[in-house]
Structure formats: C-alpha cells, structure tokens
Design brief:
The chain has one domain (5-117): de novo design (two linked rop proteins) (Up-down Bundle), CATH 1.20.1440.60. The protein is built from 5 helices and no strands. It has helices at 9-24, 29-32, 34-56, 60-86, 92-117. It is elongated and about 45 Å long.
C-alpha cells in the first residue's frame, strides 16, 4: 500500500512489458490489424495500471482485487499474443519472450497477493 508503486519490481516489469508491446505492434503486420493491436495494447497498459492502483489502495483486500485484475490482463495479453503468432502478425522469436514475461509477472503478482493475505 501507499503510492510507492514505481519502486515495485513487478510494476517496473509490467511497464517495460507494456512498452515492449507498443514497440512490437508499431510496425509490421500487427500494426495494420487495428483490433488485435489495440486490444493487446489495452491489456498491456491495464497490467501496470492495476498494479499501481492496487498498491495505492488502503487495505490489502482492496489491493488484492486490483492485483487479480492485473493477472487477468496478463492472461488476456498472453492469449492475444498466441493469436498474433497463429495469424502471422508476430514471429515466434518475438512472441515467446513476451509470453514468458507475462508468466513471470503473473507469478510475482501471485506472490504479492499471498504475502498480503498473511
């Protein structure tokens, strides 16, 4: 709790992931697929936004809700990356590390949720 979200490694990684999503979706076939591109970007921004909002909440119970929303956005982003791969909007070499980062950030969020429940 308390507004120091920029200090959180999970927020920093979430923000870096959002920036990476913006970069990979700014050129190539994905840049022309407005629906998938925009949905992917919204999910990416939602991750770091919900981590920040969760950290600023007054109670651990309130925080937990936002951290779970961030986890949901990570799952949404991962699914959209799978689609981008299948429709040849992004190559495997680009998608694989992004999905791995989604999973790593999700694990970090679960650790924070577990810690705040104690």
């Amino acid at each position: 709790m308390g507004g120091g979200f920029r200090q959180l490694q999970v927020w920093q990684r979430g923000k870096a992931l959002a920036v990476a999503i913006y970069r990979v979706s700014s050129s190539g076939p994905l840049s022309a697929d407005f629906g998938l591109r925009d949905q992917l970007r919204r999910a990416a921004v939602s991750v770091c936004s919900n981590i920040a909002e969760g950290d600023a909440r007054q109670t651990d119970q309130e925080s937990e809700q936002f951290f779970y929303t961030a986890k949901g956005s990570l799952a949404e982003m991962s699914a959209q990356l799978d689609i981008a791969l299948e429709v040849h909007s992004l190559p495997y070499a680009t998608v694989a590390p992004l999905i791995a980062e989604c999973e790593a950030i999700g694990a970090m969020l679960q650790a924070i949720i577990t810690h705040r429940r104690q």
